[in-house]
Specification:
By secondary structure, the chain is α/β, with parallel strands linked by helices. It has two domains: about 1-30, no CATH class; about 40-210, 2-enoyl-CoA Hydratase, Chain A, domain 1 (Alpha-Beta Complex). Helices cover about 40% and strands about 25% of the residues. It has seven helices and ten strands. It has helices at about 30-35, 50-65, 80-95, 110-115, 145-170, 175-180, 190-195; strands at about 1-10, 15-20, 25-30, 40-45, 70-75, 100-110, 125, 130-135, 185-190, 200. The strands form two sheets. Strands 4, 5, 6, 7, 8, 9 and 10 form a seven-stranded mixed sheet that branches. Helix 2 runs parallel beside helix 3 (about 80-95). InterPro entries: ClpP, ClpP/crotonase-like_dom_sf, ClpP/TepA. Fourteen ClpP subunits assemble into 2 heptameric rings which stack back to back to give a disk-like structure with a central cavity, resembling the structure of eukaryotic proteasomes. One of its GO terms (biological process) is protein quality control for misfolded or incompletely synthesized proteins. One of its GO terms (molecular function) is serine-type endopeptidase activity. Belongs to the peptidase S14 family.
Length: about 220
């Protein structure tokens, strides 16, 4: 198999392209397409509506294509909007496939919740990654009449309550502990994330992944 490399402008940045020549002909892929073939979805941006839609569409297709096979979600994200979080979170719980999660780089705020929402026993982090648990924040300064401010305050209380519920569900921590921890940003390295219950293990290399060939 020979590969000819090129590059093209992508929606957010420039991605390399490669052409694979096989007995069936030539085809052109970018790295995300190649990962998708292996049932890997990569969240490598802030979690906005566009990113959420991309992830949701891939999950739905992969479940349809092979409902009994795992889907892997790689996360390297600073977080994003709460509505985008719940869209992806609900999709992860909706599909029948097990969801394997990995943190590469960082999983902050809403992204940390997606990391924790993977199938128990299948949530991992690389050694140098960091995870940040943070309470929901309004995306911009709130202006308006007092009645409008009350609505926004109520929405902020609702999103915080949901965040606490998710963390309790997926980490095994008590509601009181999670409530205290959300009073400020809580930064966790890989070992601390395992202790907290955000992930189940640290993977220094592909061969160390549980179930991988020649795992050590």
């Amino acid at each position: 198999m020979s590969r000819a490399f090129a590059s093209r402008a992508f929606a957010r940045h420039v991605l390399p392209e490669f052409t694979e020549r096989t007995s069936g002909g030539a085809r052109t892929l970018d790295p995300y397409g190649k990962l998708f073939e292996d049932r890997i979805v990569f969240l490598g941006t802030a979690l906005d509506d566009a990113a959420a839609n991309d992830v949701m569409a891939q999950f739905m297709y992969l479940e349809h294509a092979a409902p009994d096979r795992d889907i892997t979600l790689y996360v390297n994200s600073p977080g994003g909007t709460f509505s985008a979080l719940t869209a992806v979170y609900d999709t992860m719980r909706y599909v029948g496939c097990d969801v394997v999660t990995y943190c590469l780089g960082q999983a902050a705020s809403q992204a940390a919740l997606l990391l924790a929402a993977g199938t128990p026993g299948k949530r991992f982090t690389l050694p140098g990654a960091r995870m940040v648990i943070a309470q929901p924040r309004l995306p911009e300064p709130v202006r308006g009449r007092p009645s409008d401010l009350l609505v926004q305050a109520g929405e902020l209380d609702r999103t915080r309550a949901l965040t606490e519920e998710m963390l309790v569900r997926h980490t095994g921590r008590t509601a009181e502990r999670v409530h205290r921890d959300l009073a400020r940003d809580l930064v966790l390295d890989a070992s601390a994330a395992v202790d907290y219950g955000l992930v189940d293990g640290i993977v220094p290399g592909r061969r160390s992944t549980p179930g991988a060939p020649e795992a050590r």
